[in-house]
């Protein structure tokens, strides 16, 4: 814990608050020039706040509460979320970063967290989305007590209401067969195998074993979290390959589809089974 009061120090002309916590030195920067009286006052105030909280048992061990804001924003939080988004390349992390950036205010104390929750609700974010955003922020600020104490109640959804009936499935397939043949083939295989979306999109012909009536699922084409119109090659959700048997319907769909692609001169050796079509004209190749 904190045994001695924090002190201000001169770090090559910049004012810095130094404290020793659990045997390690910690620093708070972005306070201004060491010779600036206003910066000195700000630094001394931060030292006093930290020492007071430590004596009362309310010290924020992450020290985020005491770091200065940059134009009213918690720049350390934004930097941490930006780094995580770059590392993970996941849509949920990128979305959390953009939400916090758009909010534009600190999220450190209970009052600030409550204000952030009220703002997200007013923005129309669903409870599940709010919960995901808070969870992502906690992952980069595990010491933020105010965030740990808040839980968003996510209402249970009825899965039964989201499941299509057999009649609805038939109607959908009939409509796709008549109006969107390309999507009929894709949707038909998805229904007959239960593949995840990214697995189906990333399925290549070298993993389609028609003679054995099976698919080898070893990779995916997942959406890039930083650019939703771009996809990246990745492993499966479980990081393991698996074999998925094909039904008679799925086998027929793939045989017909391969013939159609061969007539168009498309790659049916190791290319994508469902090559993207549409105004974007994206052609994704492995590697």
List the helices and strands and how they pair.
Blueprint: E1 7-11, E2 14-21, E3 24-28, H1 37-55, H2 75-88, H3 91-103, H4 110-122, H5 127-140, H6 145-148, H7 159-162, H8 166-179, H9 181-193, H10 197-201, E4 208-209, E5 214-217, E6 220-224, E7 227-234, E8 242-245, H11 248-263
Antiparallel strand pairs: 1-2, 2-3, 4-5, 5-8, 6-7
Helix pairs in contact: 2-3, 3-5, 8-9, 9-11
Task: Explain what you see.
The protein is an alpha+beta fold and 287 residues long. The protein has 3 domains: 7-59, no CATH class; 75-148; 162-263, Orthogonal Bundle (hpI Integrase, Chain A). It is 45% helix and 14% strand. It has 11 helices and 8 strands. The protein has helices spanning 37-55, 75-88, 91-103, 110-122, 127-140, 145-148, 159-162, 166-179, 181-193, 197-201, 248-263, and strands at 7-11, 14-21, 24-28, 208-209, 214-217, 220-224, 227-234, 242-245. It has a 3-stranded antiparallel sheet with strand order 1-2-3, covered by helices on one side. Strands 4-5-8 form a 3-stranded antiparallel sheet, with no helix packed on it.
């Amino acid at each position: 814990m904190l045994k001695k009061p924090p002190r201000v120090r001169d770090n090559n002309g910049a004012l810095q608050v130094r404290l020793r916590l659990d045997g390690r030195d910690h620093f708070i920067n972005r306070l201004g020039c060491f010779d600036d009286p206003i910066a000195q006052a700000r630094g001394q105030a931060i030292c006093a706040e930290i020492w007071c909280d430590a004596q009362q048992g309310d010290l924020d061990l992450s020290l985020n509460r005491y770091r200065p804001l940059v134009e009213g924003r918690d720049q350390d939080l934004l930097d941490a979320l930006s780094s995580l988004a770059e590392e993970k390349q996941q849509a949920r992390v990128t979305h959390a970063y953009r939400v916090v950036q758009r909010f534009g205010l600190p999220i450190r104390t209970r009052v600030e967290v409550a204000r952030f929750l009220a703002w997200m609700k007013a923005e129309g974010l669903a409870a599940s989305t709010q919960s995901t955003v808070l969870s992502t922020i906690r992952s980069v600020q595990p010491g933020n007590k105010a965030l740990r104490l808040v839980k968003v109640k996510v209402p249970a959804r009825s899965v039964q209401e989201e499941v299509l009936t057999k009649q609805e499935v038939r109607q959908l397939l009939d409509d796709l067969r008549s109006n969107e043949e390309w999507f009929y083939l894709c949707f038909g295989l998805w229904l007959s195998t239960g593949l995840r979306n990214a697995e189906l999109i990333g399925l290549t012909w070298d993993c389609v074993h028609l003679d054995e009536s099976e698919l080898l699922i070893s990779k995916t084409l997942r959406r890039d979290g930083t650019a939703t119109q771009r996809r990246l090659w990745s492993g499966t959700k479980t990081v393991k390959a698996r074999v998925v048997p094909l039904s008679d319907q799925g086998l027929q769909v793939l045989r017909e589809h391969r013939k159609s692609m061969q007539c168009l001169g498309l790659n049916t050796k190791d290319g994508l089974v469902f090559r993207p079509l549409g105004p974007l004209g994206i052609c994704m190749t492995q590697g």
